[in-house]
TrEMBL record:
Lineage: Bacteria, Bacillati, Bacillota, Clostridia, Eubacteriales
Protein name according to UniProt: PglB
InterPro entries linked: Hexapep (IPR001451), PglD_N (IPR041561), Trans_hexapeptide_repeat (IPR050179), Trimer_LpxA-like_sf (IPR011004)
Organism name: Ruminococcus flavefaciens 007c
PglD N-terminal domain ranges (all copies): 3-73
Family matches, as Pfam families: Hexapep, PglD_N
Domain of life: Bacteria
């Protein structure tokens, strides 16, 4: 078992904690936050706590700040796991980047790539061969079409159909004789 440090004790932090608990992998789960009394310290305290916590994730909505903190944690030597809820489906061929969150009832299909620091909310469907670039937040109920690429730091609406930059396979139509 391991100890997990969550940077951010707001709404995303609570979601991250529940996902981590569902994984039954961590002995202790604690927070760092500048404004929440449940935290064991401030956001900047992660370096001095690296001897107590072997793993850390960033649960902050601002994608630029989230990605910056992930890089700082990595430089200090933390393991930065992806958190996958026990009730999410992730294909064995999917690739999930460090610090990504996969919430309950999300579906991550065949050969999907979810890059570093993404948040895949409850009920999202990422169809086969799609790519979610770093720092994205795909909101509840959204569907990413097959072979779509979602640009870095994109935040979708709820129940959105996403097909940006679809990589179509162009094949000639059969000719009837």
């Amino acid at each position: 078992m391991q100890n997990l440090l969550i940077l951010g004790a707001g709404q995303y932090g609570m979601v991250a904690k529940e996902i981590a608990e569902s994984m039954r992998k961590y002995d202790h789960i604690d927070f760092l936050d500048d404004n929440n009394p449940i935290a064991v310290g401030k956001l900047g305290d992660f370096e001095k706590l690296s001897n107590v916590y072997d793993s850390a994730v960033v649960a902050i909505g601002n994608s630029d700040f989230r990605l910056k903190l992930i890089e700082e944690l990595r430089n200090v030597g933390y393991n930065i796991p992806c958190l996958i809820h026990e009730r999410a489906y992730v294909s064995p061929s999917a690739k999930i980047g460090m610090g990504a969150f996969i919430e309950p009832f999300a579906v991550v299909h065949t050969e999907v790539v979810v890059e570093t620091g993404c948040i895949i909310s409850a009920g999202v469907i990422l169809n086969h061969n799609s790519t979610i670039h770093k720092g994205c937040h795909i909101n509840c109920g959204s569907v990413v079409k097959a072979r779509a690429e979602i640009d870095a730091k994109t935040r979708t609406g709820y129940n959105e159909i996403c097909d940006t930059e679809v990589k179509e396979v162009k094949q000639p139509l059969p000719v009837a004789v």
